[in-house]
């Protein structure tokens, strides 16, 4: 645990030191769980958005993108169920005065059980070597079976209690398991109560005439209320999808773990409209498609797993999370949900407007069903950033910190580094910079030794360093250094654009999906 905490602290520290993420309003002592993206963070974030948008919209002929408003008619949130049901179970520790989500306390307890099961599996794998049969072991080993059965029992009971709004049983379960405040060890808990997560605001010139509004807690409803407009103007037949990237706001009970859980965050969502009765097959299809999209990033297949929901949201008939192994354990990265026709039917009822689709093949009108894919942009940023940050010991015994981001996502694609400013090297380097800047985001550096500049760009995640020396003035060649291999190669200046593009173009990711 201590090692995980150290890794996470390093992630947070590196993000600030290299201009990726800053605490918001820091000179005024900040705001809890609100962060600003710095110059390099903004670039990385925008590149992640591009990767998602290209894969979701550009690569699918039947998916289009929109950008809906943050402020929406208040009845929308009544229709969607957010006014009545968008709650988290809240519990306080009487001794420490700290507030927790009751379901998260139970999920964290189950995660520890799974960690114990994994340790048993790892020990057996080491003991038996190549002859180890994991499938057989996990079904026959008494400890692993016990750990996983206990997990299943806890999660099923919690799901039923939350569905039935039996909050007393949620507290009883916490007490039976002797779950303590993770910081103080106190087991002195209050009753569990529901807490609505929406931020309220007002629209109007005066307080007397102002309309009560909410900051949107999700981007999906902006898609649903525009479904008919998009379908008619795009002339798409079912199945078709609508994608959106946008801000959402939730008054989280416990906002924690850096940018993993924030009160202001960004979502990348796609709602896929399908004929009734076909939704579960499309649900399975999109589960695999979305996993493939993540795997193309090269962060390691072992760092992903599916988690099927025991407790379904009020709108769903199937739901699963793609979980990622963050420095603090496996946590939700993306959700894939079969939302049925709940949203469109609810908006049809509350608005009095028909939101049906006429299916020529079926010769009937119906409200489409929906399959949703929803990934948190900030969580994805954290997954990529934390997985890419590494400390390496080199052959000569020296160490370096490298941020081995997927090259297409790297904030800066190449650093232009004249060996020195004088003797015309600076002017020649600037010409290279001016030629390549139309195609790539670059930085120009002439301060410090070339070794220090290499290390700085390794830590920044820059895929290439291009060094200009005196020979460059004679033969129009430069030294290009690869971030990951540290291999240096002499190449013609005329070939730089092609060499860089081959590695950093989005094609390198999209072709792997």
Automatic annotation (TrEMBL):
It catalyses: tRNA(Gly) + glycine + ATP = glycyl-tRNA(Gly) + AMP + diphosphate. Its main location: cytoplasm. The keyword Transmembrane helix does not apply. It is found in: Cytoplasm. PROSITE patterns: AA_TRNA_LIGASE_II (PS50862). ATP binds at residues 250-252, 260-265, 332-333, 376-379. It is an enzyme of class 6 (ligase). Keywords: Aminoacyl-tRNA synthetase, ATP-binding, Cytoplasm, Ligase, Nucleotide-binding, Protein biosynthesis. GO terms for biological process: diadenosine tetraphosphate biosynthetic process; glycyl-tRNA aminoacylation. Homodimer. Belongs to the class-II aminoacyl-tRNA synthetase family. Catalyzes the attachment of glycine to tRNA(Gly). This is Glycine--tRNA ligase. It comes from Halpernia frigidisoli. The gene is glyQS.
